[in-house]
């Protein structure tokens, strides 16, 4: 139970970080707050740490010995949130893909895709985090 709550809070944090642009559009009065949050997370070392921690927590949740209702494995419930968090980690610091031997045009397509759907990934992570917390005893989430 504690692991589910901690992982859900981590997902909510990453969802908040990724969707600050959408929050600015929704709440224009809080623009100063969100600009300070963006300025803090735009530092290179913080992005690297967040990216590495996101990958670590995503892999940890995928292989954690935590089971859902009836002690049956939560394949979808562990797989989807874990993959979302790993994807968020690569969205926060996309240069982590430079270690892979991919053609530059594929990387450019990926960077363009990230910039276009960064907010959607944040909202999906927020929704998944809330579902993960609310339905922790269910087999699917």
Task: Describe the protein in words.
The chain has helices at 2-18, 20-26, 31-41, 44-63, 75-92, 104-134. It has one domain (2-134). It has 141 residues and is an all-alpha fold. 74% of the residues lie in helices and 0% in strands.
Helix/strand structural class: mainly alpha
What's the main sheet like?
Answer: none
Gap between N and C termini = 13 Å
How many DSSP H or I helices? 6
Fraction in beta strands? under 5%
How much helix is in the residues? over 70%
Work out the radius of gyration: 16 Å
Order of helices and strands: HHHHHH
Number of domains: 1
Give the overall shape.
globular
Query: What is the total tally of β strands?
Result: 0
Mean pLDDT: 80
Low-confidence stretches: none
């Amino acid at each position: 139970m504690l692991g589910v709550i901690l992982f859900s809070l981590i997902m909510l944090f990453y969802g908040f970080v990724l969707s600050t642009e959408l929050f600015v559009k929704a709440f224009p009065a809080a623009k100063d707050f969100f600009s300070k949050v963006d300025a803090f997370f735009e530092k290179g070392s913080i992005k690297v740490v967040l990216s590495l921690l996101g990958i670590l927590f995503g892999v940890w949740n995928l292989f954690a010995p935590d089971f859902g209702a009836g002690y049956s494995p939560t394949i979808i419930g562990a797989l989807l949130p874990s993959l979302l968090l790993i994807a968020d980690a690569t969205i926060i610091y996309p240069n982590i893909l430079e270690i892979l031997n991919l053609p530059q045009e594929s990387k450019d397509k990926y960077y363009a895709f990230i910039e276009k759907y960064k907010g959607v990934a944040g909202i999906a992570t927020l929704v998944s985090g809330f579902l993960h917390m609310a339905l922790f005893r269910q087999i699917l989430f």
